[in-house]
Amino acid sequence: MFQSEYLNRVYEGLAQRNAHEPEFLQAVKEVFESLEPVVMARPEIEANGIMERIVEPERIINFRVSWVDDAGKVQVNRGWRIQFNSAIGPYKGGLRLHPSVNQSIIKFLGFEQIFKNSLTGLPMGGGKGGADFDPKGKSDNEIMRFCQAFMTELSKHIGADTDVPAGDIGTGAREIGYMFGQYKRLRNEFTGVLTGKGLSYGGSLARTEATGYGVCYYMKEMLADMNDSFEGKRVVISGSGNVATYACQKATQLGGKVVAMSDSNGYIVDENGIDYKVIKEIKEVKRARIKTYVEYVPSAKYVEGCRGIWSVPCDIALPCATQNELNGDEAKTLIANGVKAVAEGANMPSTPEAVAAFQSAGVAFGPAKAANAGGVATSGLEMSQNSQRLSWTFEEVDAKLHDIMVNIYKSCKDAAERYGMPGNLVAGANIAGFEKVCDAMIWQGIAY
Ligand code: NDP
What's the 317 CA to ligand 1 centre distance in angstroms? Predict the structure, then answer.
């Protein structure tokens, strides 16, 4: 599979021991493919057992979350926190609440998070967590009771200098608020133990917007390298959650026209350009389905079935919904319709076949761990503000986010060039993210 015997040995051992974790193995394989030239060029990586250590989480915490629903019935969910790698800072990564959550998904997300956090240039290790809880259709009180029960166990394992969780799918400002309240109650500590907090109790301005804005800042750099810009471009964005909504706002501000967005039921097409404020109203205020967009904008159309979104012709595609939402055939449809650039807002939204199709067709491709790192970077800025007991203005945070995204793009581009793969931002992101963590692991010795 790999030219390096060492990588083959490590991957085969991992695949045997984790045969039931396909998403995790997919993420490791993709990273190993990119790192092959680095591993071959630096024998100290094998000598220090870096690859076998980096694929093994430092700690997996798996726990029962029992709570009582509005009907008085006891419900039981499975919770996880995976503390993957703390070589360059406290564990940092979101909490996903979705019925599809399992150990494989949390491990894949935690593994990716190591390199993403490293790319931001901020001192953050990699972690991830969540539960197989479905927030859809739950009352506000049920959400609160679940979040409190979840935090009752999680609070034993996290802390501002140990592990700082954040939001992800299903965990927004409301859920973070309930979790923070419970942590404070249990520990009697007001610390920056979670990010994505409300503005009145330690949250950072621009955190809500950060991932979506960051994807567009990254795309802006990709386009600039092609002597191009968002100006006048047709943009398709999948999803209509936190990342997608603010990607829509920023893409529009930068001169693009967002013609399609989706949720897990279907997609809307608005040839006049989607107004992100309508999406915000539908998703954040009403918590309704995207099909209701046509009630606000009757000239738009709604199509049932979310995957059809990739058949809408566009210059720029930003998959911002979930993992493996864009496959090889869908990538070929986008290419046939003239897509010029793709940047991933969601984590691993493109299957390996889709990534290969974009790369062989010469479509500029920005991988998730670089393009969507703006969210965790701004969480890092929230941690800094909490430690200093200060709040920066929206403009200050946004300017820092912009600089971080420009630097991430440069690091990816430089690393790809250094290893003879110019323009390959997938390899560049993996290499640039890996090098810092690898060096820190070597310097810290083995029995740390
Ligand atoms: P949200 O829960 O806010 O939104 C997810 C959106 O995706 C919803 O609109 C959901 O629709 C939709 N969706 C789910 N599955 C599909 C599908 N198969 N096709 C189309 N739409 C779908 O999550 P976020 O926006 O926070 O996260 C989205 C992605 O971005 C995730 O991969 C997450 O890990 C990643 N990410 C998020 C960051 C953040 O700061 N929030 C940071 C970095 C990465 P429905 O309502 O129907 O479920």
Answer: 15
Dist CA 94 CA 118 (whole Å): 15
**Per residue in 100-111, pLDDT tens?**
999 999 999 999
Active-site entry in 107, 128, 197, 257? 128
Between CA 435 and CA 362 the distance in angstroms is 27
> Per residue in 332-347, pLDDT tens?
999 999 999 999 999 9
Domain harbouring 169, CATH code: 3.40.50.10860
Instruction: For residue 309, give both structure tokens.
Output: 């979104």
CATH classification at residue 234: 3.40.50.720
Backbone angles phi, psi at 80, to 5 degrees: -135, 150
Answer whether residue 446 shows pLDDT above 90: no
Ligand 1 atom having least distance to the Cα of 267: 20
Nearest CA to ligand 1 atom 44: 346
Edge to edge, the sheet with strand 341-343 lists 301-304, 266-269, 257-262, 234-238, 316-319, 341-343, 364-366
Question: For residue 196, how far is its CA from the centre of ligand 1 (angstroms)?
Answer: 16
Average pLDDT over residues 308-315: 98
332 included as an active-site residue: no
| In a domain? residue 387 | no
pLDDT tens digit sequence for 289-307: 999 999 999 999 999 999 9
The closest residue, in CA terms, to atom 2 on ligand 1 is 169
Give me 414's structure tokens. Answer: 């430089």
- Strands (DSSP E) contained in 91-230 are 91-97, 125-131, 163-166
- Residue 343's φ and ψ, nearest 5 degrees, are -130, 135
Q: Rounded to whole angstroms, what are the CA distances from 431 to 69, 85, 201, 229?
A: 46, 16, 37, 27
What is the whole-number distance in angstroms between the Cα of residue 386 and the centre of ligand 1? 27
Pick the last residue of a domain from 366, 382, 405. 366
Q: What is the pLDDT of residue 156?
A: 98
Mean pLDDT of the chain: 97
Q: Position 98: which residue type?
A: H
Candidate from 117, 242, 248 with most ligand 1 atoms within 8 A of CB, to mutate? 242
Atom number of ligand 1 nearest to Cα 307: 19
Q: Is 353 inside a domain boundary?
A: yes
CB 362 within 8 A of CB 226: no
287: left (phi over 0), alpha (psi -120 to 50) or beta: left
